[in-house]
Specification:
By secondary structure, the chain is an alpha+beta fold. The chain has two domains: 1-37; 71-225, Jelly Rolls (Sandwich), CATH 2.60.120. The chain has helices spanning 2-37, 43-53, and strands at 71-77, 81-83, 105-111, 116-126, 136-144, 151-152, 169-171, 177-187, 198-208, 214-225.
Length: 226
């Protein structure tokens, strides 16, 4: 009976010792699941889109630019890369601060008035099996060489999750990894959605939409000067 009572007491002590650790695991898992369950499109944006769809007003004028291609510039990185940046914690990179402070890819361009810059970005994004966040967030920006904040090119979703952490495009790898690709453009001029002529740095930023960051490889940025 003494041995049995001692065994029961030891089992109880072990259970009590494990409880804090188990609680931490549960809390961490709950945090990850809460990020997974968080909708990308905010309730306000959904209601606004539905309201606009029911209006009889003329459709919004589409943005665009046109011209012959005068130059093509490519920059890439085939290595496997990891970032611990969490979009929701605002790590400080890119427009809005929701991305890693170090861009994946970066290059320089000289933009002339009345021209247009087109960009295509592609890469491989790893999925949850690598312990990263469910969605990988990307942003392509132009930063004036003379100084100033980065500005995202046309082609991003303005407010993911209803936050102000930066416009982005994103991908959730279905299982192991998926190939991501997205197109952007920027007209040069003095209009509302245009940037003034001059020298710029083009950056590709990234982060994970939640704890765990993001992992990926084979990043390529292709720029077309028009």
């Amino acid at each position: 009976m003494k041995h049995r009572r001692f065994g029961m007491q030891l089992t109880s002590l072990v259970a009590l010792a494990l409880l804090p650790g188990m609680a931490s695991v549960v809390n961490a898992q709950g945090s990850i699941n809460s990020q997974r369950d968080r909708p990308t499109f905010s309730k306000e944006d959904i209601e606004r889109a539905k309201s606009n769809a029911n209006k009889a007003a003329a459709p919004t004028k589409a943005l665009g630019c046109r011209g012959p291609i005068t130059q093509v510039l490519d920059v890439g990185d085939e290595d496997l890369r990891f970032t611990s940046a969490n979009y929701f914690s605002n790590p400080g990179g890119g427009e809005g601060g929701g991305f890693d402070k170090t861009p994946i890819l970066s290059t320089k361009v000289q933009l002339m008035n009345g021209t247009c810059l087109n960009a295509h970005f592609s890469g491989i994004a790893g999925g949850r099996i690598y312990g990263v966040a469910p969605l990988t967030m990307f942003q392509v920006t132009l930063t004036p060489a003379t100084g100033g904040p980065p500005r995202h090119m046309v082609g991003h979703y303005e407010q993911p999750y209803g936050t102000a952490n930066g416009a982005a495009v994103f991908l959730e790898a279905e299982s192991d990894a998926d190939v991501f690709g997205s197109n952007f453009f920027q007209k040069v001029g003095t209009g509302t959605h245009e940037v003034p002529p001059g020298a710029y740095r083009v950056d590709v930023w990234w982060s994970g939409a939640g704890p765990g960051g993001a992992i990926g490889a084979a990043f390529v940025l292709k720029l077309y000067m028009r």
